Amino acid sequence: MKIAVVGGDLRQCYLAKTLLEAGCFVKVYGLECKETGRLLKEYEYAISDNLNEAIEKCDAIVLPTPVSEKWFYVSELLWHNTLVFGWNIPKEFEAYKRYDFGKMEEVALRNAVATAEGTLAEIITNGVINLTGSKCIVTGYGRCGKEIAARLRQIGVNVTVMARNAAEREDAAFHGMDISDIFDRASYREYDFVVNTIPARVIGKPQIDKLSEDVVIIDIATMPGGTDFTYCKNKGIKALHSLGLPGKYSPKTSGWILGNAVLNIIYNGRKGDISEIQ
Q1: pLDDT over 70, % of the chain
Q2: pTM of this prediction?
Q3: pLDDT at position 115
Q4: From start to end of 21-105, where are the E strands?
């Protein structure tokens, strides 16, 4: 079976290496990382500088994470039976059999761990105070929100979870978090950090005006995020749209997880069973 790995960051390189080490025939094209040559030194034959060569007669293709618009045209070049792997695969590829990493429970859970660790790194890098003893709002309590809130609390952060879902708020309270609906109080100026995980505009002008000018906002929600970044900039508030954190902070682990998910599907569990990932 021929697998094409196209585009993406360093985790795509580790993904390709995982497939190559498992004995797959792999062609790599357009990886946006400087480490490709070094990491795939033993597999130089796998690196292609021609997209058509990389995808020619491929049985499967792994798209970059996330799939940016510049890769949409690839959908017009694939063999009709090609298996398509990726994260939030766009509708342009709907004619193919698709395997969305974001809908694989075992992958999503482990990605949430990597995202949470990366979020802490972003907070530490961009803040000016210790996390221990600080106050942080986490908006949303899905997979990533839960992991982020738990890790913050473990290191002594006073965490308030904001969620519209009453069951999610009760879950957060059970795990020792303070809880709130989405910015339903008059002021939240006592908070040092805000982490948004909700892919909808939940931190707009009215909500930002309730925060301190010294707050740091880390928004990890998918494009376009949930924060009015323009208004934050005008007010002098530091607000970052921090996407792709697993690829930035733990590309080897993330690439290995995704590579084994591909192997698990292709070989029906005979190789790289994702359940064996530690």
Answers
A1: 96
A2: 0.84
A3: 96
A4: 25-29, 60-62, 83-86, 97-100
Say how far apart CA 88 and CA 78 lie, in whole Å: 18
- How far apart are alpha carbons 208 and 203 in whole angstroms? 6
User: Which letter, b or e, does each residue of 163-173 get, where b requires 16 or more Cβ atoms within 10 Å of its Cβ?
Assistant: beeeebbebbe
Q: Hey, what are 269's tokens?
A: 């569990």
In the chain, which residues have pLDDT < 70?
268-278
Protein fold of 2-103+250-276: Rossmann fold (3.40.50)
Question: Tokens at residue 19, please?
Answer: 């497939």
Query: CB within 8 A of 26, min separation 6: which ones?
Result: 2, 3, 4, 5, 16, 19, 20, 43, 46
Q: Which fold has domain 108-243?
A: Rossmann fold (3.40.50)
DSSP β-ladder status, 97-100 and 158-162 = unpaired
Q: How high is the pLDDT of residue 268?
A: 67
- DSSP conformational letter for 93: G
Separation CA 258–CA 267 (nearest Å) = 14
Backbone φ and ψ of 193, nearest 5°:
-140, 150
Same fold, 2-103+250-276 and 108-243: yes
Lookup result for tokens 């508030």: 237
Q: What is the structure's pLDDT at 112?
A: 94
Q: Residue written as tokens 């929100």?
A: 145
Task: Share the mean pLDDT of the chain.
Answer: 92
Q: How many CB atoms lie within 10 A of CB 59?
A: 15
For the chain, which residues make up each domain, given as ranges? 2-103+250-276, 108-243
Q: How many CA atoms lie within 13 A of 191 on its CB side?
A: 25
